[in-house]
Here is the input.
Amino acid sequence: MIKDGYLWSVLNNKCPRCRTSIIFKSKNAYSLKNNHFMKMHDACQMCGQKTELEVGFYYGTGYVSYALTVAYSVSSFVAWWILFGFSIQDNSIFYWLAFNSITLIAIMPLLMRLSRSLWLSWFVKYDPDWRQNKPKEPERIVEEQMGNW
Here is the structure.
């Protein structure tokens, strides 16, 4: 079934271990009130998998977000080139730059969530028997250092 697939769970910000529960506290990526759009549960509400595997675990998502942004920019450039074309005589490159900048700003909360979901899924593997198996405890957690960044 497609709803149990890797891509479906990553795009819907589901726990990578059980693929049932949402890892973010808010379903709305644009809930900017109290910076709630990036708040994550400490552990999955269904299987108990920790979402932060070590202190500073999500620093690597900057690289993922950068790659997603570059992929979006390249694809929008190609689409703009095919649909409208580029010319030296007009300012079409500046129109594309404005379009690309505005849309990147608009989809940034989605890209940030997607990069976190992807990053977590690369380190936590799917367990079809998650109800019987207990999640692994993170190895490099120092409780005193949690939240010090």
Q: What stands out?
A: The mean pLDDT is 86. The chain has one domain: 2-138. Residues 2-138 form one domain.
